[in-house]
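Run log // design_07
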């Protein structure tokens, strides 16, 4: 009888990253550092849909490692339109930016995506507030 070890579902981003093999772990650490530097201090870091996610007035951005690539999940397609020229080096579709495990997007691009998502979330929260 064949037995397989059960993978422990991470409860924190640090636990998630500890389970990611190199070189993907280093790439995701760079992405995480760039995200942290761009989100407001009130933003939270959590595990959602089994991946690291930053939230601030809603979902900002998630990231994950897979067998053959890593991905960023900025969610809304509006983020793609605003940065289309800078995303040509990556496979993009359905709210996902794929990149090689050893070649993360530049910190500058990650920060731009994050700032755009934060602004969109703040705008959405402000519109909700005025509708009341």
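design_07 sequence
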């Amino acid at each position: 009888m064949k037995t397989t070890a059960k993978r422990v579902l991470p409860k924190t981003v640090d636990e998630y990253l500890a389970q990611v093999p190199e070189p993907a772990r280093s790439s995701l650490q760079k992405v995480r550092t760039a995200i942290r530097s761009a989100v407001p201090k009130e933003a939270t870091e959590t595990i959602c849909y089994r991946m690291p996610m930053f939230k601030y007035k809603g979902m900002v951005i998630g990231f994950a490692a897979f067998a053959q690539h890593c991905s960023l999940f900025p969610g809304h397609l509006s983020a793609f339109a605003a940065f289309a020229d800078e995303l040509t080096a990556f496979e993009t579709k359905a709210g996902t930016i794929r990149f090689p495990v050893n070649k993360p997007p530049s910190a500058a691009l990650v920060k731009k995506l994050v700032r755009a998502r934060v602004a969109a979330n703040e705008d959405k929260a402000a519109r909700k507030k005025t509708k009341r």
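The first strand starts at residue 44 and ends at 48.
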